[in-house]
Amino acid sequence: MEHHDIVIIGGGPAGLSTALALSQAGVKDIVVLEREAETGGIPRHCGHMGFAPYKNFGLMTGPNLARQLQDQTKHLDIRTATTALGFTLHGTLRVHSANGIIEISANKIILATGTRESSRAARLVGGNKLKGIMNTGELQQRVYLNGERPFKRPVIIGSEWVSYSTLLTCRHLQVKPVMMLTETSVNAAPSYFAYGARLLGTKVLQHAKLIAIHGKTTVEAIEIEQSGRIGMVDCDGVILTGRFRSEDALYSNGYLEHEDHAPKVTDSFKTSRPNIYAVGNVLGHLETAGRCMAQGRDLAKVLTP
Ligand SMILES: Cc1cc2nc3c(=O)[nH]c(=O)nc-3n(C[C@H](O)[C@H](O)[C@H](O)COP(=O)(O)OP(=O)(O)OC[C@H]3O[C@@H](n4cnc5c(N)ncnc54)[C@H](O)[C@@H]3O)c2cc1C
After folding, report:
1. Closest C-alpha to 16, from 60, 79, 59, 58
2. Fewer CB atoms < 10 Å away: N or C end of the chain?
3. Which of 17, 18, 36, 42 to mutate to test ligand 1, by most ligand atoms within 8 A of the CB atom?
4. C-alpha 43 – ligand 1 centre gap (Å)
């Protein structure tokens, strides 16, 4: 079994900034586990501007920020295509890579596994399983990493700021969404985002709920309810955006105390287990990348007083 001083699970902005700040503070034995083929986390496939290494929005694209982080951490022991599968009863980590499954123990383990969007099932949307239904993460991976153009007339469901990020991805594809539909009664992003959407020629329909998605093999229409009336909207894709939840695969079995779908942590990022910390979006909110990186630097200060 391997043993390390610090193991960080997740090579996104939060995990990499923690690793970088720890190494700058003199910590030698740090391992970062990242399940994807490259580190960088979500920014790696967010091709639009709006990223910065500090707290506020900036003028970098996501891939540029991801590359900057990769460069800054390339001297560290970063293991890509390596997934933390879970904790054993003895507190060690089961880890899968091309070499098989191994156990790793560590003096301190840091969860930096980010968030995921709610699935169609979690949103109770009816209809068949069809091609053309995806969340923002899948859309951005297909567009920015695989160069695909999955639809021509999608509907965007949601009104969080990530929903507007989807609009920018559609613009990048030269695809004009049929409409944005907010399932809640309010626009969850600042109201000027909705003006921006209209300026780009996309109608924003508020107080409307997606009931079902219809089609034979691919999406052909959605059924929506607004003010008690049911209607159909023709489209060839549905992008389900937002409603982010902490990536809870490693702790939802009760290994860590959690509430409201996020691990319980103290002000110094400590979970209910004395040697396990959590940082970044795994804490349950979709923050900016800069804010997650700042949290990583703060956590490094806690661990190297
Ligand atoms: C569509 C979209 C647009 C956005 N636009 C902006 C923007 O314009 N500006 C901005 O500042 N922020 C933006 N954000 C937010 C920003 O991307 C996040 O705040 C940031 O990526 C969070 O960093 P993180 O490290 O906490 O999580 P993530 O970036 O999600 O990284 C988590 C990493 O952990 C890995 N991982 C998860 N589980 C395991 C496991 N079991 N084993 C190994 N590895 C694992 C994942 O593969 C991932 O690489 C956007 C987010 C989305 C979804």
Report:
1. 79
2. C
3. 42
4. 6
Has residue 192 got a pLDDT over 90? no
User: What dihedral angle (degrees, nearest 10) is formed by the CA atoms of 44, 45, 49, 52?
Assistant: -30
Q: Give the list of residues 6+ apart from residue 38 with CB closer than 8 angstroms, or none.
A: 44, 66, 70, 80
Q: Do 127 and 186 lie in a common domain?
A: yes
Structure confidence at residue 16 (pLDDT): 98
pLDDT at 185: 54
In terms of domains, do 249 and 112 share one?
yes
DSSP string, 62-77: HHHHHHHHHHHTTTSE
196-223 confidence digits (pLDDT tens): 788 888 888 888 999 999 999 999 999 9
Residues 80 and 154 in one domain: no
pTM metric for this prediction: 0.89
Q: Please return the burial class of 299, using the count of CB atoms within 10 Å of its CB with bins 0-12, 13-18 and 19+.
A: buried
* Number of residues that make up the chain: 305
- Residue 137 and residue 212 in one domain: yes
Q: Is the CB of 113 under 6 A from ligand 1?
A: yes
280 lines ligand 1 (CB under 6 A): yes
